[in-house]
Amino acid sequence: MGDITxxxxxxxxxxxxxxxxxVRAGYYDGNLWHRVISDFMIQTGDSTTRHxxxxxxxxxxxxxxRIPAEICFxxxxxxxxxxxxxxxxxxxxxxxxxxASQFYLVWGFPYGPKAMAKFQHQLDSLxxxxxxxxxxxxxxxxxxxxxxxxxxxYTVFGEVVKGLSVVGDIDAVATDDHDRPLKDVRIIKxxxxx
Length: 194
Fold this sequence. Notes:
- The chain is of the alpha+beta class.
- Helix content is about 25%, strand content about 15%.
- Strand 2 and strand 3 form a beta hairpin.
- It starts with a strand and ends in a 23-residue tail after the last helix.
- The model has no long low-confidence stretch (mean pLDDT about 95).
């Protein structure tokens, strides 16, 4: 549907290096964007989706290892265009370790002061009140959008620097009951640009 360029953060070196290793190995080439939730995010990284038949539920595979969390919140947050690592739920993964290969790009939508107050309450519960949303971040969520309820819970390790409209186009495709696009959307080729 178009080109997407992401920039990786040096403050998340394990995620950065793992992502680069997988891209260089061709791991993502041909993968489906297998989970697309409108006004939320688009997800990929299950290499078995290359050959998935239409309508089959997919998205459970990754290479079988986890990456320790490198959460750098509030410096990096779930703004529109954030690149973040998927992971297993808290009950199975209390240390928030990331999937080896699955990642998502955030779309989300704008949140005003009332919603941000609710998210601050959730963040207070998560951090015993020690972490607050800076005003600049609240302003960003209001003017640009994102998914603030994921902040402090998932590792954000990069961001889209070109092709954000492509993310929006993928985010808007029709999906089935399992959030798989009805018409396959693939990563044709992932490459490293220096």
